[in-house]
Amino acid sequence: MNNKLLNDRDIEFMLYEFLDTEALCRRPRYQEHSREVFNAILDTAKTVASNYFADHYAKGDANEPTFDGQNVHLIPETKQAWDAFAQAGFLAAHYDFDEGGMQLPEIILRVSMAYMTAANTATAGYPFLSIGAANLIHSYGNEEQKARFLPPMKEGRFAGTMALTEPNQGSALADINTTAKPQADGSYRLFGQKMYISGGDQSLTENIVHMVLAKIKGAPAGAKGISLFICPKVLVNEDGSLGERNDVQLAGLLHKMGYRNTTSTVLNFGEKDGAVGYLIGEPHKGLFYMFQMMNEARIGVGMGAAILGYQGYNYSLDYARQRPQGRLASQKDPQSRQVNIIEHADVRRMLLAQKAYCEGGLALCLYASSLFEDSLTAETEDARHEAITLLDLITPIVKTWPSKYGPKANDLAIQVLGGSGYIREYPVEQYYRDNRLNPIHEGTEGIQGLDLLGRKVLQGNMSGYKLFNAKVSATVVAANGVNRLLSMAEQLRAGLDTLNEVTDAILPKLAEDADLALANATIYLDLFGRVAISWIWLQQALVAVNALDEPDVSASDSNFYRGKLQAARFYLEWELPEIGPQASLLMELNSICYDMQDSWF
Ligand SMILES: Cc1cc2nc3c(=O)[nH]c(=O)nc-3n(C[C@H](O)[C@H](O)[C@H](O)COP(=O)(O)OP(=O)(O)OC[C@H]3O[C@@H](n4cnc5c(N)ncnc54)[C@H](O)[C@@H]3O)c2cc1C
Question: Are 510 and 338 in contact (CB under 8 A)?
């Protein structure tokens, strides 16, 4: 059965037809690169993913990490994968040449990571977090911190984590209880307990660099009193050698539904004299700094969800092409051959929905990565500003939409396999279990809805929102010029109008009664997401139509582009119209959930 990672033709389409990744080579930072270089790097990523990550996807699930009271034990393939990833240079790939990196664009790093996630999302969690933690030190650490921690993190001798959540504080980070006590030498001592910390202990690296949120004694209440600290598992001497064990103890491992080969830890900071921590940047600005890692992780979580959905889609498509079962209603002869289940329209419905969700979600996440790239390296200040403005607005959607519809795709993959889908020998149930985490971590769906409607839409005098409108309208105009896309263009235009009507209706109520106005924010997020994905699909359809008109399009490419067009039609005709009833609920500020009382349940 098919064990392929993503779909090479689709990745090529997304990088070079839907997006113009090759154009990056004209920017000063990437002048030494070319499409061939990018492709060679992606080939290396695919090889590492196939040889070192894919081999233990099921094994890591069946043999979850253990803790003997002293050490954490992982199956040995995990370390081989970590080492192969580090030796291939991926931990440092996006850094400048003079910082020991390959000066790779963000999007190439993301697609490289996408292969690891496709092969084994749990093992890929370790490098994913380490890259984010190192990026945070790179952006906001002082020179001494960078010199001490970044080289071993880039080499893979140290890994990194993000330590935000506590047993009693998850969504509400403003209320965290971990404290930091200043010391005469400028360092701090941390005291508190963190929970769910991914990779918080493991047996892959000689050290772990925790990025910890804590409050310095006397800090202002709430989010404005949070500071960020580097807190290594083992202290690092000035010459870079390892010193004493820091006062960070593993209290225990958590046992999860999926993602099992990534350790989930409860960590105690300061059981003895306090865990030595080093303040990053200024006091009380920790949440602002941490948002860099969180935003990066949010795109990564959305992408991971789309990819797990994609893997289920690949598997169920292959299965449907090979599984004979039943006959079409029109075939009356009981002795005729059974058809493969892909011949049944209902199975095609399930495959098409998966395709629409996963290719749509992945395209959205790669578009977000390209915006992140533009925010750093676009030619003009205006273009950089525009990119970050739009990215800020859509980040809750980029995180949430694939996290919601990726698992839905996995659910459909299970259904396509029938009984086999429910059996652990087939990978689709593991994809589902692994993917079920994504709507929870990095800000739940509910929190992302509040962020979008309560903050992001209004931000900068609605500049991101207006930009989104302008971009979608431009795509509608472009599609209006193409006969085959007229009806899709009209559907998207109507969808955008609906989003605007809903937004106009709710925003004035925010000041009057914020609780009621935000009560259905998750529905608003879904509605906005459907419009955004329709836009992404119409852009893909535009590329496909133009390519199909080329005289020398090959037969396989022709099928590929027709598939894109059909998936775009499916999304716009079957999924976008769901915003109608959602809009009605939102515009009337429907209060059924809001009014429901605890005592009535
Ligand atoms: C496997 C796994 C890995 C993780 N990895 C990490 C990690 O590496 N580092 C880290 O710091 N954390 C990590 N987390 C923690 C994760 O980010 C939190 O679990 C998540 O943010 C939710 O917090 P919580 O579990 O406390 O749930 P709660 O905050 O208690 O939320 C419970 C429910 O209430 C809803 N809710 C909460 N507040 C509101 C509100 N104001 N309005 C509306 N609804 C609300 C939520 O949407 C949710 O449905 C991980 C979690 C898991 C399960």
Answer: no
